[in-house]
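Fold this complex.
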Amino acid sequence: MSRISKTLEVLAKNQRKALVPYVTAGDPTIKMSLSIMQTLVKAGADMIELGMPFTDPMAEGPVIQHAHERSLANGTKLRDIFAVVREFRKADDKTPVILMGYLNPIEVMGYDNFANAAARAGVDGVLVVDMPPEEGEALSLHLQQQQLDPIYLISPTTTTQRLALVKKYGRGYHYYVSLKGITGSGKLDTDDVAEHLKSIGEHLSLPICVGFGIRDAESAAAIAKIADGVVIGSALIARMEQFNQDDTALLAEVEHFMSDIRSAL
Amino acid sequence: MSNIEYHTQMPDDGGHFGPYGGKFVAETLMKPLSDLQQAYTDCRQDQTFFAEFQQDLKHYVGRPTPLYFAERLTKHVGGAKIYLKREDLTHTGAHKINNTIGQALLAKRMGKTRIIAETGAGQHGVATATVAARLGLECVVYMGTQDIARQAINVYRMKLLGATVVPVDSGSKTLKDALNEALRDWVTNVDDTFYILGTVAGPHPYPQMVRDFQAVIGYEAKEQLLELENRLPDLLIACVGGGSNAIGLFYPFLDDEDVAMVGVEAGGKGIDTGLHAAPLCVGKTGVLHGNRTYLMCDEEGQINATHSISAGLDYPGVGPEHALLKDVARVKYTNVNDEEALAAFHDLTHIEGIMPALESSHAIAYANKIAATMDKEQIIIVNLSGRGDKDIHTVAEIDGIKV
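Structure:
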């Protein structure tokens, strides 16, 4: 059983919901990424989504776009991200790490090389935003060969018919996009999410984590009532942004914000 | 390189041209894309849709556009006969209107009330704002701030037409960033919004749909040349940014084996400098903006900033059908640099009294070069995809003149 599945199983047994923060690797620096990940775990994160920066992140709102830009300006490369995960794994063999990004850097590295390097570094899952299951068979098979979980998105516009494809290739958990929009959008409608999750749940068996538009303890708690996990990205990064020049203050803010949310779940 | 053969019935149901094309978008856009695909498939089989399209092309756009024998230019160059397909004479001044007319009809059929588009040079933005005005639909056009600065006339035209022009200040501030922003808008407003994509790139069904709407260029040119010369051309030449005017001219000739074709990319300051927009000439394959194709990106897969004197060619990707046509060597792709394009702009203006867009000037520049090496009996058709009025400020600035 994968580290992701094990983590989610234990949480479910204890009737707890997964707290899944998203941060972009290399923002504000690649050196800080390790400390940020460790702080997230300390503050109660159950899994970490680690963003791989891309020049053209078409599903991201301004906050995460800027995080990608900062990271690329620092020269962050895929091998730096693998190195961070490897360092993280030395002290933490429990917390799953999911790489999240766009397909082109993976295509250019080669599916086989990417899956190999990710597995060796201690990555557990990979979510490629611009790769729907229709285009995902080859990469998913490469990932599965390395015991990595391919994570797929489900959105309010996903048809029942297409859930079969998500089910076929998806492993670990499904990521439900809570709204029609980009990351960090402000129009979260919990009732709408609940309704969709109910009908999706009839077709899928993996746990479902919900992301996009969750900004604080209150919205996180509302989503946690209806989903297996809560993903928080833009709201976290918006807070981190204010302390880009001050590592200590940044880590303190990360811990404070995530602890708040943890206690609300 | 792929071993697959090209055929004109491509793409497949998933939008694939061999290894290229496809639908590489975030999950939320899969449904609107499949709705669009369904609506377009229905229209393709519907005689009344294409009859309406033809009517609009005739009475609103002003088609057929002339196929003009550039006699003075031919003499000047001293070689093959050069014919110009005069897309610059369409309503709004570029081939872009052919596609926006088609997609607007589709938007109307699908009951969408809001139109969005991306634009580089502003020609597609103007063509979109035009059809939106005509249908009384809200229109939002995304445009990079660098392009807004160099295409001020078109920005104002769009505003006069009632469109909202949204400046895009992210990334390289050009066409690719405008496309990202348009996709972000669409994902947020999928229910009421129709995205009129301007080129043969993007996710399926855009590369197919835009090709079909632009193919009128080649069908007309073929008929016109048969009438004028009673034969097919030896060579077709068109500039390639995303590749819509090129595929429009090429597509109806692809099964005519004796017709050679050359797509001319933007060589910018020279291929060696890295400052260009020529993915088919020097790029590698990858995925951007919903399709797999040739791209300009670095070893990490990050998309490179591009450079071209012409905003409409300033794009790091290219339509997937072109990618396959390159691999199977049915079309040859080359490039022309800024300086050569600018010289061709002046040449055509002086010699024929026709001011070409800087994009089209790339095709003219290559035609001038290659025609000189060809036999006098041979015939070239160049797609004069747009008129140059919009580029007057760029040209004047280079000449040190304040307009």
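Chain B touches chain A at residues 14, 22-32, 170-171, 176-177, 180, 183-184, 187-191, 284-290, 292, 295, 297, 299-303 (CB under 8 Å).
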